[in-house]
Design brief:
single chain; 143 residues; mainly alpha; 2 domains; 8 helices; 52% helix
Length: 143
């Protein structure tokens, strides 16, 4: 007899079927399928993981999540962004208003932010925010 895989209490077959009727990404479908296979109890963790294309460790990490967390993960892993959403919006506005990357770097490195970012970091965020020289206003100098 196969060992039953413990799942979060809110994961039931009717709730999985209801969730599966919604608009899902491939990742969400894989997670629901893994939970359905675990609920059926006919497969080992290794078999489910191999079928879905994940590691056993990842499968067991998913089994600890609620249905809501499976469908809408809060953070995909990795390092938290150095610049908050608010700072990224301000960076975008400064670039569009004509600030150069060097001026933006100085602003980020100065109090009160003190982010300590290098010039290539500023270039990274300019690219990430899909800012181009076309979106940049030209500064006018009074001579």
């Amino acid at each position: 007899m196969r060992k039953k895989i413990a799942l979060a209490p809110d994961i039931t077959l009717p709730r999985l079927e209801e969730a599966a009727r919604g608009v899902l990404t491939a990742k969400q479908r894989n997670r629901l399928r893994a939970m359905r296979l675990a609920l059926e109890g006919n497969h080992t963790a290794a078999e489910i993981a191999a079928d879905i294309g994940i590691s056993r460790a990842q499968l067991f990490a998913w089994t600890r999540l609620t249905l809501e967390q499976l469908l809408h993960p809060q953070h995909g892993g990795g390092r938290a962004p150095r610049l908050t959403d608010e700072v990224q919006r301000e960076l975008s506005g400064r670039f569009r208003n004509g600030d150069s990357p060097a001026e933006i770097q100085h602003w980020l490195n100065s109090p009160p932010l003190r982010i300590n970012i290098k010039s290539y970091g500023v270039s990274y965020y300019i690219g990430k925010l899909r800012l181009s020289p076309d979106t940049k206003a030209q500064k006018t100098t009074v001579g």
